[in-house]
Amino acid sequence: MLREVLLRSVLPPVAALLVLLALWEGLVRALGVPAFLLPPPSAVFATGVQEARELAASAWVTAEAALIGFGLSALVGALAAVVLSSSRLLERALYPYTLFLQTVPIVAVAPLLVLWFGPGQRAVAASAFIVSVFPVIANTLSGLRSVEPALRDLFRLYGAGRLATLLKLELPSALPHIFTGLRIASGLAVIGAIVGEFVAGFSEGTAGLGILVLGAYRQLRTDLMFAAVMCAAGLGIVLFGAVSLMGARLLRRWHPSAS
Amino acid sequence: MPFLAPELAPPAPDLLPSGSGIGVRVTQVHRTFPGGVAALDGVDLEFTPGSFVALVGPSGCGKSTLLRIIAGLDSATRGQVELSHAPDQPHGSRAPIAYVFQDAHLLPWRSVLDNAALPLELSGVSRPERHAAAREILGQIGLGDFTHRHPAELSGGMRMRVSLARALVTRPRLLLLDEPFGALDELTRGRLDEQLRALWHELGMTVLFVTHSLSEAAWLAERVIVFSPRPARVVLDRVLSLPRRRAAALRLESAFAREVQALSEALERGGA
Pairing mode, if any, of strands B223-227 and B52-56? Predict the structure, then answer.
């Protein structure tokens, strides 16, 4: 069965990737495209191996900031949703302003973050947080709102208080929605961290992937840029995968989206 | 609202007084929904302790609304619902009422055992005690081997039985059922009807059963009330002349057919 799954779901994307890479390599070589414009995949790979140590160190710096931002998003976002869901009036009054988080151009706000937090990890994590918190709020809120009315009746009939209803009914009911929000937030947190680093990532110590990309750009080391971008994308995928896996494990026994 | 601590070790069936249910008196109950739709327009009814009464009527006639008002899940626009107190019940405490919905409405993230134990959990009964009570009622209802399954792993009929166990785990004095078996196939439904009747004999609570199936009403209940279309009026209030102990074969007897016929005529008289 495992073989069948592998054949069906892993083989096609891998095959597509290989074809794409081969085309890329072939065209770059055949047309003699200069490496600073578009390096062939083999060169990117070679650079990746050569600079593996620096890439890994940078990826870790970015990952740390992204994880802090993501963790804050999960915590603050879920909490904010619980508060907003506690009263219609509160939701009506405040929810429109959470949209601000969704629409704010992070690149424009990032300098502000440097002013407030100083350059370095804290400003970068704040950027990751701002970019990723909205989907958590929006999805958790819609989850908390979508509890079956009959179950609310049941809890009322048995005299359940606010807290018991929240912990034993609303939050578990909202869990699939919360994980949808977290999955979206996980990818956004990495993007937010990289953007944050562009503006706020300069500090002593190891530079994050965003800084690495900027540095490579200034030296026209396009191969290193590509390698760093791949690392950033990989980071996002790993975080997304981890969150998805956690969700699937938690929801495995009861929710159709998990199977 | 504080809830009566349920008795966890029920007395042996033969010791249970047949009248351990509570009585309900409904006086001039009106219910008008926002928008002006009247569901109930002055309903007067009295249900004696320990009786099994079926409420039938066309769908949307307001019989479910009446049930919700009796349960305290909805309130009457006008009129009164009074509940009598069981003899061994301290005055002023709320009578243990249980409610079974049209669908099972289980918590999908909980095991069968924890679903059945939920009402006790919400009223603060300790874990071992509520699990023991849930295990016992699940055993009685034929789900003793499924306590650790999750609702998604059960059939529709089994889910409904868990829902019934959840309602009975507090040993309620008044059991309200709102078309509980409507979504099930004929065979499963018949079995659940039998099980419900057996549990009623054993536990002696008052049962109000809303259904739109006349034959289900006649087979289950001692007394059937037929409602008109909205706003609900009582068209017929009939005590059935059928034996107290009923077997599945009763459905084939002429006495049974006569009762169903009477109900059907009343339904048409009130309805069309």
Answer: parallel
Burial code (b: 16+ CB inside 10 Å, e: under 16) for A195-221 equals bbbbbbbbbeeebbbbbbbbebeeeeb
**DSSP β-ladder status, B38-47 and B24-32:** antiparallel
pLDDT at B2 over 50: no
The per-residue pLDDT for range A187-232, each reduced to its tens digit, is 999 999 999 998 887 766 778 899 999 999 999 999 999 999 999 9
Sheet holding B38-47, edge to edge: B38-47, B24-32, B78-83
Using CA atoms, how far residue B223 sits from A116, B218, B240, B246, in Å, is: 75, 8, 6, 14
Name the nearest CA neighbour of B118 among B103, B137, B102.
Answer: B137
Separation between Cα atoms, residue A195 and residue A65, nearest integer Å: 12
Sign of the dihedral through C-alpha B245, B246, B247, B253: positive
| Cα angle value A115/A205/A50 (rounded, 5°) | 130
Nearest neighbour of B105 by CB, restricted to A148, A156, A175: A148
Interchain proximity A254–B97, CB inside 8 Å: no
User: What is the distance, to the nearest Å, from the Cα of residue B189 to the centroid of all Cα atoms in its chain?
Assistant: 15
CB-based contact, A17 to chain B, within 8 Å: no
**Domains of chain A listed by start with CATH number:** 42-258 (1.10.3720.10)
CATH superfamily of B21-96+173-272: P-loop containing nucleotide triphosphate hydrolases (3.40.50.300)
CB atoms within 10 A of CB B146: 17
Q: Largest Cα–Cα distance of chain B, in whole Å? A: 54
**Spatial distance between the Cα atoms of A159 and A148, rounded to a whole number of angstroms:** 17
Q: What percent of chain A has pLDDT over 70?
A: 97
Q: Is the pLDDT of residue B13 over 80?
A: no
Integer-rounded Cα Rg, in Å, for chain B is: 18
Q: What is the pLDDT of residue A164?
A: 92
pLDDT tens figures, B218-267: 889 999 999 888 888 888 888 888 888 888 788 888 888 888 888 888 88
In terms of C-beta density within 10 A (0-12 exposed, 13-18 middle, 19 or more buried), how is residue B202 classed?
middle
Q: Are B50 and B202 in contact (CB under 8 A)?
A: no
* Interchain CB distance below 8 Å, B107 and A155: no
Amino acid (one-letter) located at A105: P
Round to whole Å and give the CA distance between A52 and B134.
Answer: 59
3-state secondary structure of B233: coil
Q: Which residue of B has its CA nearest to A149?
A: B105
Which 3 state secondary structure label does DSSP give A75? Answer: helix
- Bridge partners of A44, per DSSP, are none
Q: How far is B239 from chain A (nearest CA, A)?
A: 30
Amino acid at B102: Q
Please report residues of A whose CB lies closer than 8 A to that of B98.
157
pLDDT digits (tens, 9 = 90+) for B184-197: 888 888 888 998 99
